[in-house]
Amino acid sequence: MFAKKNLALVLCLLMAGCAGSEKKPQAQQAAMPAPEVTQAWLDDYEPKLREAIKGSHFELERRESLLVVTAPVEGSFNPDRPHMLLPVTLGPISRLAKLVEHDKSMGVLILGHADSSGAATLNRELSHERARAFTAIFRLSGLRQDRLLVKGLGADMPRAANDSVEGRALNRRVEILLTPRVTLNALIAHYSQPAVIPAVAQAVPGAKSSKTKPAATGKAVASSKQAN
């Protein structure tokens, strides 16, 4: 009888220990990756992304724990139908999407940006539609919704002053933010905060660019209204 009671006590403790261990991953999921892990991730993915966008008019830079691919509106969207992607953009976007889709630890936030000309509400809607056009390509490549978020920011985060043609062109863009999946929700929460519009956008310290000349444009492809 004594042996049976001891055995029952041991089993109870073991089961309690297992039950306790099931709760730990939930707390760990919300934690940010260690700096050395983030640095290793950046070092591993940066050359892969540069290869994916090679020969395109896209740019790549590091922003702290993020890798950001920027696509200017000019050369990416049909000038006559501003929600529609041009065929020249499909290759680099598809290569990026395939790279991300095969790594389940990775998440993507796609941000649309506009210049400050026109009504703020219309700018925000247009920037969101352009971001959704990119999102559609990622979805077609198999990236699921839990790893893919999209948001239109309008003119809230300019790269340059909007008082020149060149500055406005820089501000019209779509950004693809790649990050470890565990930080994705924190990232979208950051970009959901009330906007603070700077007079002139500040350059990103230490940013690395793979900017190339804009490629030739072609006929427009399916509208972003098919996305999301």
From TrEMBL:
<keyword id="KW-0472">Membrane</keyword>
<feature type="signal peptide">
    <location>
        <begin position="1"/>
        <end position="21"/>
    </location>
</feature>
<protein>
    <submittedName>
        <fullName>OmpA family protein</fullName>
    </submittedName>
</protein>
<dbReference type="InterPro" id="IPR006665">
    <property type="entry name" value="OmpA-like"/>
</dbReference>
<dbReference type="Pfam" id="PF00691">
    <property type="entry name" value="OmpA"/>
</dbReference>
<feature type="domain" description="OmpA-like">
    <location>
        <begin position="64"/>
        <end position="182"/>
    </location>
</feature>
<dbReference type="InterPro" id="IPR050330">
    <property type="entry name" value="Bact_OuterMem_StrucFunc"/>
</dbReference>
<feature type="region of interest" description="Disordered">
    <location>
        <begin position="208"/>
        <end position="228"/>
    </location>
</feature>
<keyword id="KW-0732">Signal</keyword>
<dbReference type="InterPro" id="IPR036737">
    <property type="entry name" value="OmpA-like_sf"/>
</dbReference>
